[in-house]
Write a structure and sequence with these properties.
Layout lengths: L9 H17 L6 H19 L4 H8 L7 H8 E6 L12 E8 L2 E8 L5 H7 L6 H17 L3 E7 L6 H5 L2 H13 L5 E10 H5 L6 E5 L3 E3 L3 H8 L6 H8 L3 H6 L5 E3 L10 H20 L3 H13 L3 E3 L6 E3 L1
Helix pairs in contact: 1-2, 4-13, 6-8, 10-11
């Protein structure tokens, strides 16, 4: 755990600290038990009210919280018999994307996800969760394996975007992302993606073109990060909050826009305050969607997948009131 506390978390954490102090005193004084119960109820109500009314910028902050669970944290909660598979068989292994085979409620699946680090050393190793071309080519290799053996694919998205460095561009970053999109569009096996933190640009979409797109309650998903958007539109990186308001990147916004298929509830206060509770809700949602997809033929799944992405997006023709979709 870090010592970082978001501004909107502070009143709740201060109240919880007071409750802990009173509990220590209550061992020698039974008369304050009623006061503790009252404060616990107040803290629970305050949490529910505050986290139900977060602004888009606060959602972004929560999605990027340094204590938020990452892919390997969920692997430990969701899967048994996990075996990580590394390397793209062409250049190197990219630790920013992890993947492998495990049993999900007794069923073998392939799981792929972005992985960030908890400290400076880990983040340098994981490249802050920003994948290079070899990461996406590793994902492609694992998806091809899943297709060969008829295994469903679950992906966990949590990245600010694909790595934009010179080396990544030299090794074909854009081609690697495009190849992933093409491959996922034609898969016969059921596919489910879950945005567990931040989903940024093509780096997220490269493992997210799936039959179903789920989002954790406080995750965000956008074509560009608020900072990047602010730098381009207003030439001011400090206009991040303004950009977050405009991007419609929260789970509830994307559910209304038809991008997100289901919002998975998190523990009160965020996934970092209740990994086991959040993972149980996530497992239930993934299992339900996989069951629905299993009932469809591969041809029906691909047809529905095509229709799903063609239906996304709206634009208006200049000088006309006509609105187009797709």
């Amino acid at each position: 755990m870090t010592n970082r506390v978001l501004d909107f978390e502070r009143p709740i954490l201060e109240l919880e600290s007071k409750i802990r102090e009173l509990k220590d005193l209550s061992e020698a004084n039974d008369e304050i038990a009623d006061e503790i119960a009252r404060l616990e109820e107040k803290a629970r109500r305050l949490q529910q009210e505050r986290f139900a009314t977060l602004s888009p910028w606060e959602q972004v902050q929560l999605a990027k919280h340094p204590d938020r669970p990452y892919t390997l944290d969920y692997v430990g909660e969701l899967l048994t018999d996990w075996m990580e598979l590394k390397g793209d068989r062409a250049f190197a292994d990219d630790p920013a994307i992890v993947g492998g085979v495990g049993r999900f409620r007794g069923r073998p699946i392939v799981l792929i996800g972005h992985q960030k680090g908890r400290n400076t050393k880990e983040n340098l190793y994981r490249n802050f969760g920003m994948a290079r071309p070899e990461g996406y080519r590793k994902a492609q290799r694992l998806m091809a394996m899943a297709e060969r053996f008829g295994l469903p694919i679950v992906t966990l998205i949590d990245t600010a975007g694909a790595y934009p460095g010179i080396g990544a561009e030299e090794r074909g970053q854009s081609e690697a992302i495009a190849a992933s999109l093409e491959q996922m569009a034609g898969l016969d096996v059921p596919t489910v993606s879950v945005v567990i933190g931040e989903g940024g640009s093509g780096g997220a979409l490269a493992i997210g073109l799936t039959d179903r797109i789920l989002m954790l309650e406080h995750a965000v998903y956008s074509v560009i990060s608020p900072r990047g958007c602010a730098s381009i539109l207003w030439k001011d990186p400090d206009a991040e909050q303004k950009a977050a308001d405009q991007l419609k990147l929260s789970a509830h916004d994307l559910r209304r826009l038809g991008v997100c298929d289901e919002i998975v509830p998190e523990a009160v206060g965020g996934a970092h305050r209740g990994l086991a509770e959040t993972a149980r809700a996530l497992a239930d949602a993934v299992a339900r969607h996989l069951s629905e997809l299993d009932a469809m033929t591969p041809q029906a799944r691909k047809k529905a997948r095509y229709g799903k992405y063609r239906a996304m997006g709206r634009f208006e023709t200049a000088g006309s009131a006509r609105t187009e979709t797709g």
